[in-house]
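Task: sequence design from structure.
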């Protein structure tokens, strides 16, 4: 269940990162409220995940998924650069996330 919490936290992290763009420096009320709520939810689910996962692993996966998701959203919706080298480095983050998940061992 901890991995599900980290995945949910990551989706909320992407949401609040994108919300920051729409809030225009917290000058747009609805987007600002959305951003703050999704920040809180992201931290709550991250905290739930870290009850059983090592903090380093949970945090790295959370930020990695958030970074990849936000970068992809930026490419698709904000016309951010689509250079092959940028895609390659985003791919490397994904490889790191998968590696952390595959090398995780429970400590019971």
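Answer:
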């Amino acid at each position: 269940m901890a991995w599900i919490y980290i995945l949910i936290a990551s989706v909320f992290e992407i949401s609040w990162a994108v919300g920051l763009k729409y809030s225009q420096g917290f000058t747009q009320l609805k987007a600002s409220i959305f951003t703050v709520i999704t920040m809180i939810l992201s931290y709550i689910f991250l905290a739930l995940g870290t009850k059983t996962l090592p903090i380093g692993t949970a945090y790295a996966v959370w930020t990695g998924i958030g970074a990849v998701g936000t970068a992809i959203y930026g490419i698709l919706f904000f016309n951010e650069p689509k250079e092959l080298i940028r895609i390659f480095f985003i791919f490397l983050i994904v490889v790191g996330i998968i590696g952390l998940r595959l090398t995780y061992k429970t400590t019971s």
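The chain has a mean pLDDT of 95.
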